[in-house]
Amino acid sequence: MDRGLTRVLFVDLSRHRFWVEERPELFRERLGGTGVGIELLHERCPEGVDPLAPENPIVFAVGPLNALFPLASKTVALFKSPHTGNLGESHCGGRSAVALRLAGYGALVIEGKSDVPVYLSIQNGRVHFRDARALWGLSSSFTVGRIVREQEPGSGYRTILRIGRAGENLVTYANVVAESYRHFGRLGLGAVFGAKNLKAVVITGRGRVPVAQPPRYQKLYRDLYERAVRSPLMRKYHDLGTPQNVGPLNKIGALPVRNLRAGRYEGDPPFLGEYMAERYLARRLACSHCPVACIHLAALREPHPDEPYFYKTTFVSYDYEPIYALGTMLGGEDPEGYLKLMDAVEHLALDAMSCGVVLAWATEAFERGLITGRDTGGLAPRWGDYDVYIEMVRRIAERRGELYDVLARGVEEAAKRYGGEEFALAFGKNEMAGYHTGPGAYLTFLSGARHSHLDSAGYSADQADLKEGRRRSPQELARALFSEEARRQVLSSLVVCFFARGLYDMGTCVECLGALGMDWDEDGLLHLGEEILRRKYAFKVREGFDLSSLRIPRRITETPTPFGPLSEEELRLALEEMERLLGG
């Protein structure tokens, strides 16, 4: 095994010191990524700790396939979430994984709290603690990235992870931005950065990664590369990207509209992937070691208010989930308004998904009189009114006034304070993703380790069942989703982008590890995936999580899915089976 992968870099912000520990046995048994990260979190995170306390560690981890194979491009972050109070897990691409791996580390653990704002510069085997007081309070995460780029060496070899105003102000769904258009998006890592007075982390990697069997490795690499660029498996992500989902979901009635009051637009949705590409697509970008280029940037061209023929052009990243959360969930009809809101959310460094669901709840709560103009500071949120929404996200990021302070803690907290729990669309306190496909999606949101649609892909199970004209029993569905989530723990330990899950079946994973001198078989990998999943749930339970006590919003049973109305009883039965499986 590559010795660089087995090294863990520890940084103590309180004492401004760092050290390295060799952990070969940990990486040998758990591969890397999520498998290693959850063990480090168990070791370093005190039970019951406040997520915003100095003692809450941030663990970044990569795996054996990073910097070597196509689409093995993600870094995993694990921490105790300030948003949910239990496991926080987020994945990010860009250059983050390659930079950390080539810097000579398999994991980075950040602990403590600096007495003044700092950013970390990790290069040449050292950690430099840079004074970030001049960066603290800047209005845009993009500006922070530009300034740090001018100060630090290593262009093309580095990643710059930074927070915006939302993270500084401890908004519990603040994110961490990497390379401007990628994020550690969900569950509030940005707030954990802010609580530590940590503005940014710069990692510069110039090392090399040895390969045990070069001819075998080269053949595997060529095969995976060809499949990635020539097969239809990945074409969707390159051509239209995930916005391709908008039309099909609308057609089957699975697209959340106006806080899930409906499952479709009456006509064509205004955010169809085809329309966005034809009207706005300006550029595609790719993460390091990825030939697919799934990052789609829109060019938003706005005329100067006083000068004719002068325009400001802004590049805005757009994907399905932000389109759902900041577009359809808000009843949007104006793609340009959506792009302006998305741009504001990016600059403030907020999680777009949680932000959109919070705004949708606030719009309906205002409509029902649960909150008033006195609460909103004179703003009147209405479906699709993007000027108002842009001002609201600014106030949320600043926590300006009682309502916005509550909204900065998520829709669960807002509903507890003002009412409207029946239409507060959070699951395990994390705001819902954009799939109203049926019981599989909601079982994933409820029981997935990070309450993400990507945990066990229940939306895919729903769509497969719909196509085949079947409806699984709650117990059958739970077993299928448990198996899929366990399989994904292997991918997130290697660490492979979930978009490439069709390329990296277990046989391929075994072959890749073998080329690197690591002896695994398919059964061993699947068993490891189950172990890692159960270790995640052990952490969640340790921090007070209970599957049986989860709130199920009434709204999801009122708006019919493609299968018809959902039953809360059906979901409770599936949760019982999932709890049995997770208990081993």
Detailed description of the structure:
The protein is α+β, with helices and mostly antiparallel strands and 584 residues long. It folds into 3 domains: 3-204, 4-Layer Sandwich (Aldehyde Ferredoxin Oxidoreductase,  A, domain 1); 247-427, Aldehyde Ferredoxin Oxidoreductase Protein, subunit A, domain 2 (Orthogonal Bundle); 434-582, Orthogonal Bundle (Aldehyde Ferredoxin Oxidoreductase Protein, subunit A, domain 3). Helix content is 43%, strand content 15%. It is built from 25 helices and 17 strands. It has a 6-stranded mixed sheet with strand order 2-1-6-3-4-5, sandwiched between helices. It has a 6-stranded mixed sheet with strand order 8-7-12-9-10-11. It has a 3-stranded antiparallel sheet with strand order 13-14-15. The protein is globular, with a radius of gyration of 23 Å. The model has no long low-confidence stretch (mean pLDDT 96).
Gist of the model:
With 584 residues, the protein is of the alpha+beta class. The protein has 25 helices and 17 strands. 55% of the residues are buried.
pLDDT < 50 stretches: none
Strand order of the largest sheet: 2-1-6-3-4-5
- Average pLDDT number: 96
* CATH fold title of the largest domain: Aldehyde Ferredoxin Oxidoreductase,  A, domain 1
Name the overall outline: globular
**What structural class is derived from the secondary structure elements?**
alpha+beta
Biggest sheet overview? 6 strands, mixed
Say which CATH homologous superfamily of the largest domain is assigned.
Aldehyde ferredoxin oxidoreductase, N-terminal domain
The CATH C-level class name of the largest domain: Alpha Beta
Question: What is the terminal separation in angstroms?
Answer: 30 Å
Please count the beta strands (DSSP E, at least 2 residues each).
17
Strand proportion, as a percent range, falls in 15-25%
How many domains in all? 3
Helix percent band: 40-55%
Radius of gyration: 23 Å
Specify the number of helices. 25
CATH architecture designation of the largest domain: 4-Layer Sandwich
